[in-house]
Amino acid sequence: MTADDRDRSIAGRWLQQAQYDLEAARYTAEGEFHALACFLSQQSAEKAVAGYLFARGADHVWGHALADLCEDAMQLDKSFDVIKSVAMLLDKHHQPTRYPSGLPGGVPHLAYEQTDSERAIEIAVDVLEFVETRMRSL
């Protein structure tokens, strides 16, 4: 197996998990678990961008912030600037959706609503489609 084949295999696993997380986000949103749906949307987008970085030969991908991951991807493909401004909106869902300490005086499952999960899922779809398009040209 060549290094390119290995990188594509790793990337494919990350994209497969990104797609699964997106489906899980949709499912939890339907069940009105909106905080969890927002978190899973962030996870889907994060894994999609990480998959792209692995496909391009990254040995390790560090961090969870989409703003940073998109910056890393921009070093390889300037067009990631297009999706970065949207993708980074999901960064706010990484911690506060899961921990009461992320929402001073609040509880995550009470703070998120249907409009939040709908928007997060929409962004995750955009990021995943963007990455899949870039992956086809590799």
Helices and strands, with pairings:
Layout: H1 3-30, H2 34-55, H3 66-74, H4 80-87, H5 108-111, H6 114-136
Helix pairs in contact: 1-2, 1-6, 2-3, 2-6, 3-4
Describe the protein in words.
The chain is 68% helix and 0% strand. It is mostly helical and 138 residues long. Helix 1 runs antiparallel to helix 2 (34-55), helix 2 runs parallel beside helix 3 and helix 3 packs antiparallel against helix 4 (80-87).
- Alpha-carbon distance between the termini? 17 Å
Q: What characterizes the major β-sheet?
A: none
Number of helices: 6
Oligomer: single chain
How helix-rich are the residues, as a percent range?
55-70%
* Secondary structure: number of strands: 0
Overall mean confidence score, pLDDT:
95
What is the gist of this entry?
By secondary structure, this protein is mainly alpha-helical. Helix content is 68%, strand content 0%.
What would the keywords be for this entry?
mainly alpha; 138 residues
